[in-house]
Write a structure and sequence with these properties.
There is one protein chain. This protein has about 230 residues and is α/β, with parallel strands linked by helices. It has a single domain, classed as 3-Layer(aba) Sandwich (Rossmann fold). The protein is built from nine helices and nine strands. A five-stranded parallel beta sheet has the order 2-7-1-8-9, sandwiched between helices. α1 packs across α7, α5 packs antiparallel against α6 and α7 packs across α8. The chain binds adenosine-5'-diphosphate (ADP) and guanosine-5'-monophosphate. The site of adenosine-5'-diphosphate (ADP) has 14 residues, from α1 and α5.
Length: about 230
């Protein structure tokens, strides 16, 4: 049985960066390439970051029940996870990582309670705004919309199993890797090696119940000046 990892984060938190780093250091993990009705940005290629489809094509996929989950994100574009990625991962004995928003995460958790959910937070609202502006991919209007969506998405953090604060990239990458590997070890039923026990301890520090203290000032930074 494949382990399904759900990763959600407000746009600009560094989720794509972290997930790319994770794939460099963890094997037997597939990435679910989502379908979206939004146009490609920058250097994005069809079939790499996303499958870019029309609204009509997306609706046809909904009608033929091809999605494990789908949602309208930012009140604008639709994004969905095709069931076939899960089937393919299971057939090849790999785990599967879904990079999806909070609405999609809730749908997958409902259908697959054993899925591992991870919420990535930026260190503060100020840092998030800086990262979005520095990335240079979105208009001012789009950035304002993403910051507003971020504030609402962050309120859902407590529905996730693990919380990861992407402050220093290297540390956040190590934590994400530890979560993925610790879940594998735990489910294997084998006693952990010394190295695996260390990963397990790192992962435990990111569990929701341990993370609440770290999350509070981040939430405050999003609620100030509202
Ligand atoms: P997301 O996928 O969450 O929308 P990206 O991975 O595109 O975010 O990251 C947003 C911007 O922040 C990018 O320019 C990226 O290089 C930068 N970034 C990512 N992680 C960090 C970090 N830990 N510290 C500083 N900048 C970061
Ligand atoms: P972006 O347009 O910046 O690539 O992604 C916007 C948001 O859509 C991100 O929060 C991303 O996680 C989410 N997203 C991407 N693919 C899917 C998907 O298949 N389903 C859902 N529900 N959200 C997705």
């Amino acid at each position: 049985m494949s382990i399904v990892y759900i990763v959600s984060a407000p746009s600009g938190s560094g989720k794509s960066t972290l997930v790319n780093e994770l794939f460099k250091v963890v094997s037997h993990l597939d990435f679910s390439i989502s379908y979206t009705t939004r146009p490609p940005r920058g250097s994005e290629q069809n079939g790499k970051e996303y499958f870019f489809v029309t609204k009509e094509e997306f609706e046809a996929m909904i009608a033929s029940d091809e999605f494990l989950e789908y949602a309208n994100v930012f009140g604008k574009d639709c994004y969905g996870t095709a069931r076939r990625f899960l089937k393919q991962a299971e057939a090849s004995g790999n785990d599967l990582l879904l990079d999806i928003d909070v609405q999609g995460a809730a749908q997958v958790k409902e259908k697959m309670p054993k899925a591992v959910s991870i919420f990535i937070l930026p260190p503060s609202r100020q840092q998030l705004e800086w990262r979005l502006r520095n990335r240079g991919e979105d208009s001012d209007e789009e950035i304002d919309r993403r910051l507003d969506t971020a504030r609402r998405e962050i309120e859902n953090y407590s529905k996730y199993d693990y919380i990861l604060v992407n402050d220093r990239l290297e540390q956040a990458t190590d934590e994400l890797k530890a979560i993925v590997l610790a879940e594998r070890v735990q489910r294997s039923g084998q006693p952990p090696s010394v190295e695996e026990a260390k990963l397990f301890a790192t992962a435990q520090e990111c569990r929701l119940d341990r993370a609440r203290e770290r999350v509070r000032p981040i939430l405050d930074s999003f609620n100030q000046g509202r």
